[in-house]
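Sample entry (595 residues):
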Amino acid sequence: MAFIYRISFQQRVWIGFIFVVTVAVAATGLLSYRIAANISETNAYKLSQDTLNKTSQALDEKLGKVRTSIFSMIMNPDYQKAVGFNSSSSQEANYYTYLSSMQDVYVQLRTIEPMIVSALVATPKGNYYQITQAVKPQYSFYGTDLHQRIMAQTGKHREAWVEGHEDAIFEGGKRVITFLTEGILNDVSREVFVAANLKEEELKGFVSTNLNWSEGSYFLVNQQGLDVFQPDADAGFTQKLKANPLFIQALQQQDGFFEYEADHQGYMINYTRLKVAGDWTLFSVLPKSQLFAQLEGLKWTILTIIISCLLIGFVVAKLMTSFLMKPLLNLQYVMHKVEHNDWSMRFQSDYADEITQVGFRFNRMLDEINRLFQEVSVAEKEKHISEMKALQAQIAPHFLYNTLNTIYWKSQLDQSEAVQKMVLALSKLFQLGLNKGQELTTLKNELQHVEHYLMIQQECYEHLFDYFIELDEGVDVQQTMVKIIIQPLVENAILHGFKNRNEGGEIKITVRQSERSLFLIVEDNGEGMAVYAPDAQRESNANSSGFALYNIQRRLELHYGSEALIKVESELGAFTRITLRIPRRFDEPHYGGNP
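Predicted structure, serialized as C-alpha cells:
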C-alpha cells in the first residue's frame, strides 16, 4: 500500500470512490441477476408450454373445422340423394346424375375449408368425387388400408385420422393426411364412407406458423409413436428421443414436459394431446440455450449497468477534484492553446482567487502581444508593397532610356516607318506593362509584352538576332502570373549575351506547364556568364545581368515565397538558359483580355 503515498490526492480520491462504487454495484447486480434468473426460468417454462397449448388448440380448431365441413356435406340434400338415403330413386340408375349434382357440393366443401384438397364418397354402387380430380383407375375404397383403418374403429359413429401418406385414391402421388368417417349419421347403412384429404405440407406449415420458433422444432405422433408428418432430414435426433422412457410415458398422458440431453446440450420437451384427433400428441423441442436466451441478455444488461455505474463514478470523482482545481486547469488549458499558436484564447473564471488574478494578467499580456504582432504585420506588408513598386520602377526607366535613344537616331535618319512601328510597339508595351495598375497579368499578356519588346529591339539592332516563342500543347494562356518577368531576361540576352557579335543571335522562349507549376524558359546562344550568385549581385550596377536576375528572383519571392524557383544554366562562349518555375494559382482571378 506504499504506492498510495506516492500518488496525487486526486488519484487517491478516484481509487477510493471507485472501490466503494464497485463493491456496491457488483453486489447489487449479482443479487438482482440471481432473482431475475429464477423468475425468467419459471416464465420460460410456462411460456413454452403455453405456446404449445395454444398451437394445439389452433390445430384442434383447424381439424375440427375440417370435420365439421365434412359433416355439413353429409347433411346436404344432394349428398343424401347420391348415397341413397331418404330417396326412392335407384342410386345405380341415376349415378351420373348424382355425380353431376355432387360437383356443387364439393365446390362448397372446398370453399368452406380450403385445406381440404380432395374428397371421395365411397358407396357400394360407386364413388363420388370432384371430376376435375383424377381417381386412380379401377379404384375401390373397400378392402384398402383406409377401409381397414375406419373399420377398426369402435363406437356409434366411426371416424379416424390417418397420418401423412402418399395419396392412394387420386393421381399425383401427393402426400396427404386423411380424415375418414362413415358417410351416414345413423345406423341405416354403415357401408358409406367419406375420405377427405388434407395437404400434409400445408398442415405442417400451419403448425410451424403458430409455434413461430426459430431454433426449436416439433413433431406430431400417434399413440404408437409414428410420425403424423413426414420427418425432416435431421430426424435422427427425433428417433433417439423416441427411445427415451420419458417419451414413451408421455404418450400415455395428456400434457406435460420433461428435460432431455443429447450431444452435450440440454432440451426442454413439452407435449400435449390433441382433442379432435384424440390419439395424436404434439411434441415441441426447445434448446435450453434459446429457452433461457433472456438470461443471457439479462446478464449482459446487468454487466453493462455495472460498467456504466463505474464509468459514472469515475466521472463524478474527476468532477469533484476538477471543481477544486478548475481555475488552475483553465489557465493550464489556455497556456497550452497559446503554445500551439491559438492567440485568440483568453482565460475566464467566475472565481476571485489568486489563480484567477494570475489568469487575468496573462490575458493582458496576450492582448499586448497581439497588438505588437499587428503592428509588425502592417509594417511588413507596407514594406513589401513599397519594395515591389521600387523593383518595378527600376525596370521601366532602364528600358525606356534605351528605346527612346534608338527612336531618336532613327528619326534623324528619316526612317519614319520604323519609327512609327517602334512607337506603336512601345505604346502597346507600356499598355501591357501598366496592366491597369495590377501586379498580376495573364500568360498571354506577358508573352505579348515581351514580343513587343523584341520587335523594338530588332529595330534597334538590325540583323543581330532572331527570336522564337513556343508554347507546349495544352498550356493555359489565361493563367495568372507576376508581370514583366520575361522581358528582363530577354534584355540580358541582347545587351550582354550578344555584346560581342553583330549577327547570328538567337533567343528562344519556351512555355511549359505541369499540373501544379508553370515553366518559362529563356535561352540564347550568346556569350554565357559565370555562375549566378544573387547575394553577391545585390550591389551591382543597373547594367549588369546579375541585377536583372536578382530583381526577378526578389519579385518572385515576394509574391510566391519558396514555391518559385529560378535556375540558371550557362557556358561561357556558348549559351545561357534561364528557367523560371512559378506555381499555378487556381484561386487567383484572371486578368485576361486587353488591359
